[in-house]
Amino acid sequence: MPMRLREQMPELAGLTEWVNGEVSKEDLKGKPALVHFWAVSCHMCKESLPTINEWRDTLAKQYNMQIIGIHMPRYEKDTDLEAVHEAIKQYGLQHPIGIDNEHAVTDAFQNEYVPAYYLFDAEGQMRFYGAGEKAIGLVEQRIHKILGPKENG
């Protein structure tokens, strides 16, 4: 059964390796987070990576939000660490990226799709989930709505 809204973020444990620094659920206490699942074989995922970098440079700073990438292999060839490292370098990804060749985090999130986006608030509760090509258009809007200033009234 997929994760539900307001569920707590699963642990980020059991990954094959981390690139650009390791992050734990404990590190994220009091800080919103966007967890982005992607794969090197996914064309749509690669098209979204420049937007992820833009969010890292703008929204992450604006909302003190941590962006975390999880590379979720869809095929055997996606488990090639060298190919994943090359994609990280090619697309200038500087945020922490967990390579999940054993699907430990993928399974903990009950994630089946790439690209997929999970937005967690500062209390670690899932506030938005979106997947597929239309999801990227919704993520930024939801970040502003969920993490933005609360309206008085």
Question: Your description of this structure?
Answer:
This protein is α/β, with parallel strands linked by helices and 153 residues long. A 6-stranded mixed β-sheet has the order 1-4-3-2-5-6, with helices on one face. It is built from 5 helices and 6 strands. A hairpin with a 5-residue loop joins strand 5 and strand 6. It is globular, with a radius of gyration of 14 Å. The longest helix has 15 residues. It has a domain of 35 residues.
Shape: globular
Number of beta strands: 6
- The fraction of residues assigned to DSSP E strands is 15-25%
Biggest β-sheet description: 6 strands, mixed
Estimate the mean pLDDT confidence: 94
User: Strand order within the widest sheet?
Assistant: 1-4-3-2-5-6
Cα-atom radius of gyration: 14 Å
Output the structural class.
alpha/beta
Order of SSEs, N→C? Answer: EEHHEHEHEEH
| Percentage of residues assigned to helices | 25-40%
Number of helices: 5
| Measured distance between first and last alpha carbons | 37 Å
Low-confidence stretches: none
Can you describe this structure in just a few lines?
31% of the residues lie in helices and 19% in strands. The protein is built from five helices and six strands, in the order E-E-H-H-E-H-E-H-E-E-H.
Helix and strand arrangement:
Elements: E1 17-19, E2 33-38, H1 43-57, H2 59-62, E3 66-71, H3 81-90, E4 97-99, H4 104-108, E5 116-120, E6 126-131, H5 135-147
Q: Keyphrases for this structure?
A:
6-stranded mixed β-sheet; 153 residues; alpha/beta
